Amino acid sequence: MPASKSKSAKSTATPSDPATAILRQHAEEQFAAELAALTAADDRQRPPNWQLSPWAVATYLMGGTVGDTEISPKYVGQRRLMEVAIATLATDRALLLYGIPGTGKSWVSEHLAAAIAGDSTRLIQGTAGTSEEAIRYGWNYAELLAKGPSMQAIVPSPLMKAMTAGKIARVEELTRIPADVQDTLITVLSEKTLPIAELGEEVQAVKGFNLIATANNRDKGVNELSSALKRRFNTVILPVPSHADEEVQIVQKRVESLGRALELPAEAPALTEIRRVVTLFRELRSGVTEDGKTKLKSPSGTLSTAEAISVVSSGLALAAHFGDGSLSAEDLAAGVYGAIVKDPVQDAVVWKEYLETVVKERDGWRDLYRACRELG
Question: What percent of the chain has pLDDT over 70?
Fold first, then answer.
């Protein structure tokens, strides 16, 4: 007899079983111990249906110590930004996390939902092909043909599920969704109801429901939000890290976490190598060297913190499987080139100029220069 399927959307695989080990756990599963410690110690007032108080949510995001439990920081940056985001979700206003790609919008969105609702899985991924049904509801056509329109024939969207459960819904890349589909959210955000026209009924949101959306300003094919929809969001702009040390810290923590998850048989990357990648990306991103003496051309890509994490992680995999396990300039070179040269003509000129005028002349960077030159 086949095993019955769980009603929960969450996977039942356990990391202890190598055959079914999960590559990436949801935030509420990965940091369950931290959330449990915060829940036990949290004696402050909680908004309706919240798992934690706003203070505890901020502690979860920014890090701290609760009893004997160390809470790891999920966001490195201005605490006030997180406080504004959390306070927004405690009201009837939806939250829009905005900024260039790679500034941690999706990461913050997931952890906010995990801390507030205990569930970050009510997710709508925005694309150019996202339909109105993906946001509102769909139909079980077998049930529809057999018995006609009814609540039983409706296939609820993650948004509808969040409304009925009083949880947080997430919409990733809102500006990738066509404008007419975006506006489906207006009634939900203003009236806190989802009309079901076919049945003459509506779904009303339970206390605790809210929505977190993310959007970036560098995506080709962006659909601007209508003014009516913009008014229903409080916008928090997540900037790139203001200081190199902050960015190095972010890259180091995320790379170490990825290395553990992927079980890479390599040494933890040296801070020296991480700092070189971060410095290189920050200089090309800002168009000037860190000492302010040399102006630079910027490539077409964003060279975000997320891309720096990707470069170091890829280098770590090369070192683990094709090297001696220690991250070197040779392991970083290919990833650096791939991140910078998106346009084979324009970006190649920018990279070559930077390589010859900055990397070649910088003390301690000769190995990186040689590795990049050998790569061609």
Answer: 93
188 and 148 inside one domain: yes
Domain match, 203 and 290 both: no
- Per DSSP bridges, beta strands 193-196 and 137-139 are unpaired
Contact by Cβ (8 Å): 322, 311: no
pLDDT at residue 1 in the model: 43
| Strand 201-204 with 193-196, pairing | antiparallel
CA distance 126 to 237: 19
User: Does residue 122 sit within a domain?
Assistant: yes
259: containing domain? 244-375
H helix intervals, 212-365? 227-230, 244-262, 271-286, 305-322, 329-340, 346-354
Q: Residue 28: pLDDT band by 50, 70, 90 thresholds? A: very high
Q: Which of 210, 237, 264 is the last residue of a domain?
A: 237
Residue 164 lies in a domain: yes
> What are the tens digits of pLDDT across the range 120-144?
999 999 998 999 999 999 999 999 8
Whether residue 12 lies inside any domain: the answer is no
Catalogue the E-assigned strands of the chain.
64-66, 69-71, 94-99, 123-125, 137-139, 154-156, 168-172, 193-196, 201-204, 210-216, 233-237
